[in-house]
Amino acid sequence: MLRYDRYEGQRDKTVIILHGLFGSAKNFSSVAAALTPYATVYAYDARNHGLSHHTATHNLNELSEDLAEFITEQQIKNPILIGHSLGGLTAMDYIRRRGDTVRALVVLDIAPRTYPLGHEKEIAAQKIMVSAMATRKDIDDVMQKVLPDRVVRQFLQMNIGRDETGQFVWQNNIAAIEDSKSRTVFPPYENPLFRGPVLSIRGLRSDYVTNEDIVRMRAAFPLLESHDLPDAAHWLHHTHRDEVTRLISAFVQRV
To answer: Which residue range or ranges hold the AB hydrolase-1 domain (predicted)?
Structure first.
């Protein structure tokens, strides 16, 4: 079962927000709230993330099917899909199969291709036994030895909750995510992948979306609008929330 938040808003449009790897729906709470003058917004925790169900496997096909089931269960028609990183890949894979059911697409720092393995430091940080620690400062002090980047540490620490005994716990199913990351492969597709409106926002301090990717995306998405944030890295919705929110809001308002 996918845990989700619904933000009641203007009813002519519906937005679904898909967070990225190691994220959760709450990463986009302020973005979702800002979109309510233009749409009703859903944001859910992907499988093996946040408070959604844990499974032994974790791959793009399953994530795409989870999205399809969510749309059916909520009786959503022609959604605008917004996805960061793995969430963007999920949205694009859904569109690859069912593009005629989607109104528009927003992708945050991701392109429709397979990415090499990585995230070793982030995975190592989430293997730290937080249940043995008394405060979040204690957790951060230990994480810093594995993951020096303060911004990424803060982002990952949003996945720490407490169990029924009050001890700290990681909410992500890191074992399944680590075991399955080699299977997050974006399938081949024919151009155009999607003929509807598409907004791409990339951080120029990130290597996730290259200039060559933008060229390929223009072939895949004929109506592509591309925006660059010069001083943003991959977690741009966390570090540049106001600018990302402004760009997305303007796009959702006019599509």
So the answer is: 15-245
Q: Phi, psi at residue 95, to the nearest 5°?
A: -65, -35
Which class for 120: exposed (0-12), middle (13-18), buried (19 or more C-beta within 10 A)?
Answer: exposed
Structure tokens, 92: 């694009």
- To the question of domain 4-116+180-254 being in CATH 3.20.20.100, the answer is no
Alpha-carbon gap, residue 160 to 50, rounded angstroms: 9
For the chain, 255 residues long, give each residue's pLDDT as a single digit of tens. Answer: 899 999 999 989 999 999 999 999 999 999 999 999 999 999 999 999 999 999 998 999 999 999 999 999 999 999 999 999 999 999 999 999 999 999 999 999 999 999 876 788 999 999 999 999 999 999 999 999 999 999 899 989 999 999 999 999 999 999 998 887 656 789 999 999 999 999 999 999 999 999 999 999 999 999 999 999 999 999 999 899 999 999 999 999 999
CB atoms closer than 10 angstroms to residue 56: 10
CA triple 101-104-105, angle to 5 deg? 110
The answer to whether the CB of 41 falls within 8 A of the CB of 17 is yes
Element (H, E) at 86: helix 86-98
Please provide residue 199's backbone torsions phi and psi, each rounded to the nearest 5 degrees: -115, 125
**52 is written with which tokens?**
């959604």
Tokens standing for 101? 């059911």
In whole angstroms, give the CA distance from residue 174 to residue 121: 13
